Amino acid sequence: MLEVHVPKRREGSSPFPRTTLFAAYNVSMNLWAQAAVEIFEEAATADHWKSTWFRDTEPGGSFLGTLDQLTAEQASRPPACGRNTIVAHARHALAYIEMGVASAKGEQPSVDWAETWAVQQMNETDWAVLRQRFREKSDEWRGMVIANETWEDPDWMKSTIAFVAHAAYHLGAVRQLAADIVRHT
Prior knowledge:
With 185 residues, this protein is mainly α. The protein has 7 helices and no strands.
């Protein structure tokens, strides 16, 4: 089992001094955090925006919006031999967010990443619970990012960027799988 945590920065581990990491660029950390949260929302939870930075603007274009358009049966359909279902992507993405929230709280969560992909099918009740939990944990993570006061730590920033990248990756994967499901329904 792989243990994942947000590491603590060691003095001298960054080529940038703690106090000047963004001073050279005159970047407000509140603005940086807000931008990171908005891009995460675009990928993960936002239903519909007038304009976007990288995804389609239609209603339901986010990761969660896509999941909400699918029944448990559709999300449980194997896309092709050896590929994971949408249910598995959703469980994995939720586990990633839960791990990040726990790490940000100072916990040292242990995540069995192989297990996050193990469940490939769900009934409607479990599917609804998973989507609600994804909403709740995404909201919690967003709140933690906005409230964070330790942006001098490069690991916090890397973790936040990784969250955005992870959400965007799974948005693309799920959108492709959903398109195939809808096309064959």
